[in-house]
Structures are given as C-alpha cells and as structure tokens.
Design a protein that fits this description.
By secondary structure, this protein is mainly β. The chain has four helices and 31 strands. The strands form ten sheets. Strands 7, 9, 10, 11 and 12 form a five-stranded mixed β-sheet that branches. Strands 14, 16, 17, 18 and 19 form a five-stranded mixed β-sheet that branches.
C-alpha cells in the first residue's frame, strides 16, 4: 500500500476446516478468500483453493504362502486365506482388496513347501484408483502318510505247495492316499523263503513287513506273519495180515513184519511208527487164513502229534502135516493067539505135530482080520494103513504088513 507500510491481511478460513479428498488437482476444494485492508479501510481481495488430492497408493499387507495338506478339503482354507489380506490408506478407510484367484482352481500336488504352486495376485485399490499389489502362492504339499490296509497272518497247510498262496497273499495288501491314487506297495519277502514248520497257529513264523509309499515318499508300514502249520495227518502204509506157519519159530518173522510198516508226511521225513504188539504174544492156532488172530494196531505219528492208524492181524495157521512114525511089519507065529499082539502093534504107531500135542492116529484094520499063512517073512500079508490127523485135518500116512 502506498500509504500504509503495514497492510492488514485477513482470510475467511476457519481453523480445522478441510475440504473433501479429491483424486486430482482440478477437483473441488475449499475456497479461501484473502482480504488486504489498509489503515483507512481500503481493501483488496483474492481467492485460492485448498484441495486434498489422493495421489498416494494404499499399502497392502500380504499373506504368507498358503500350504495345504493333501486331504482334499481346501475350500474353507483358501477362502479364509484370500480374505486375510489387508491394506491401509491415509485417505481411504475402506480400501478395496481383490485377487485373481479363480474359484476351484488348485495347483498340482508337490512334495515340499518350495515346490511349484498357484500364484495369486492381490490388489489393493483406494477410492482414487491408486493401487498396491502383492503375490502369494498356494501349494498343496503331500506330507501325509498313506494308510496301509494290512493282511491277516498267512496260515499254510503243510503240503509243500506254497508259491501261489504266498503270491496271492503278498498281492492282497492295499493302501489309500488322498493325493496318490496309485500308492506303491512293497514288502521285504524273499522269494522262496519259508519258515520252519510249527504245530499251531501261534507258533513262530516268518514276519513280512509291507510298506506303502506315495509319490512324495511318505510311507506307512504293517507286518504280518507266514506260518506253515502241520495240521495234516501222516499217511500210513499198512502191511498185509501175517500168516505164520505152525512151526514154533515166530520171533524173527513177527519182528520183520512189525518193522515193514511205513508212513509218509509232507512235513516230517521221519514219521514215528508204533504198534500195540506185546512181545511174545501169540494168537491161538487156526486152521485157515480167515480164522481169528491177534489184531495189531499201527500208529504213525508226526512231529506235531498228527496221527494215522491201521490194523493188521497175526494168524498162526496150521497147514503142516503131522509126522507119523510107522511100525515095522508084524510077524506072527502060527499059534492062533494073535489078538493081543495085533492090538499092541496097532497101538505102537506114533506121530508128532508142532501145533497139536495129541495127534489122532487111526488105521484101516478090521478087527479079527488075518492074512493067509505064508512060509517066509517076505510072503504076502495083510497091509494096514495108518493115518495121523491133527486138529486142522492135516494128515500123514504110512503102511505096514501083518
């Protein structure tokens, strides 16, 4: 002012007043009028605008990468993760956060937290279109073991044919896995390996460990036991009935007969064979091979106590003729008194028999019969036939002449 060195300048601004935030420098603002007044009240005015322009990006607070366990239930976890991103902005209390995730999209399964995944970009946008971005990765990591379904112990009958049964048993193990439809199942069985034979289903066996392994090397194991249990009876091969001739010498024949029984067993090369024969026992003598005898029961017993039995009969059959001891010819003097001499001569014949102590001796002499008188001891006479008969009708004969 030409006349006033200290012009008074005033304005109509109200302390604390602020315009609304605008997005550019041409936007609406708060107009402030300035007035210059000199000492004589002369004035001059001008106006200017206060604008708050939002040209600053919001600040996004990103999330850590999302690690999902391979369990197939991802929706709720992904939703919570997407919604956990936040952002701040000096001018906008409600920054809009968006992302490029497509619902239902999933990355391939990986085996560790550094593997490839699905990258999701998050964008924070304020009311003026200022943005900030960040990215995070969704990974499905298979850190869960598969679940193996083991088999029951394998009980093999002792029959020597095991290969097909063992193979079927080994192949019956299964496993499930949320991330791997084709879990690899292995075992530590060595082909051809067999446990020792045991006598019951609780006996020692060969333990086989099965391992289920998924594509990421996660494993589950179980064990089962192969047992070969001898529950099968041996097979006895019996002997025919023993027919002994009535000769009194039986010991060696009976011993050989008793020892001729055999047996076979798939699991025991040395089956024990026993019998209930009492040494020295003999049946009564019979007259034919169908007669009664002494029944001997043979028992084949394997190492597990399984048994098989058979029976055979010892018979002493008298098929041997007695042995007659004949008399010499009877020479009678022609004196008319012959009866006592002939009777004594007839009764002097004897016989022996191994099986019959009392052999019956008979003859065909007719009492009172006499030959014609001859003149020498070589003349014709009366021939008498003697027959020795044992209890079984076996006979021996001889003849002598009166």
């Amino acid at each position: 002012d030409a006349c006033d060195a200290n012009v008074t300048i005033s304005n109509n601004y109200t302390a604390g007043s602020l315009p609304s935030v605008v997005c550019n420098t041409n936007g609406a603002g708060l107009t402030v009028t300035f007035t210059a007044t000199d000492d004589c009240g002369n004035t001059d005015q001008c106006s200017a605008v206060i604008r708050i322009v939002d040209r600053d990006d919001p600040v996004i607070s990103c999330v850590n990468d999302l690690i999902l366990e391979c369990d197939g239930d991802y929706t709720s976890e992904i939703s919570a993760w997407l919604n956990s991103v936040s952002a701040s902005d000096a001018c906008d209390a409600n920054v809009t956060i968006s992302n490029n995730y497509t619902a239902g999209s999933l990355p391939s399964v990986v085996c560790n937290t550094n593997g490839a995944g699905l990258t999701v970009t998050f964008t924070a946008t304020d009311d003026c279109g200022n943005t900030d971005q960040c990215s995070a990765v969704i990974r499905i990591v298979d850190r869960v073991d598969p679940v193996i379904s083991c088999v029951n112990d394998l009980i093999l009958e002792c029959d020597g044919d095991y290969t097909s049964e063992i193979n079927a048993w080994l192949n019956s193990v299964s496993a499930s896995d949320a991330c791997d439809a084709n879990v690899t199942i292995s075992n530590n069985y060595t082909a051809g390996s067999l446990p020792s034979v045991v006598c019951n289903t609780n006996g020692a066996g060969l333990t086989v460990t099965f391992t289920a392994t998924d594509d990421c090397g996660n494993t589950d194991q179980c064990s089962a036991v192969i047992r070969i249990v001898d529950r099968v009876d041996p097979v006895i091969s019996c002997v025919n009935d023993l027919i002994l001739e009535c000769d009194g010498d039986y010991t060696s024949e009976i011993s050989a007969w008793l020892n001729s029984v055999s047996a076979s067993d798939a699991c025991d090369a040395n089956v024990t064979i026993s019998n209930n024969y009492t040494a020295g026992s003999l049946p009564s003598v019979v007259c034919n091979t169908n007669g009664s005898g002494l029944t001997v029961t043979f028992t084949a017993t394997d190492d597990c106590g399984n048994t098989d039995q058979c029976s055979a009969v010892i018979r002493i059959v008298d098929r041997v003729d007695p042995v007659i001891s004949c008399v010499n010819d009877l020479i009678l003097e022609c004196d008319g008194d012959y009866t006592s001499e002939i009777n004594a001569w007839l009764n002097s014949v004897s016989a022996s028999d191994v099986c019959d102590a009392n052999v019956t001796i008979s003859n065909n002499y007719t009492a009172g019969s006499l030959p014609i008188v001859v003149c020498n001891t070589n003349g014709a006479g009366l021939t008498v036939t003697f027959t020795a008969t044992d209890d079984c009708g076996n006979t021996d004969q001889c003849s002598a002449v009166i």
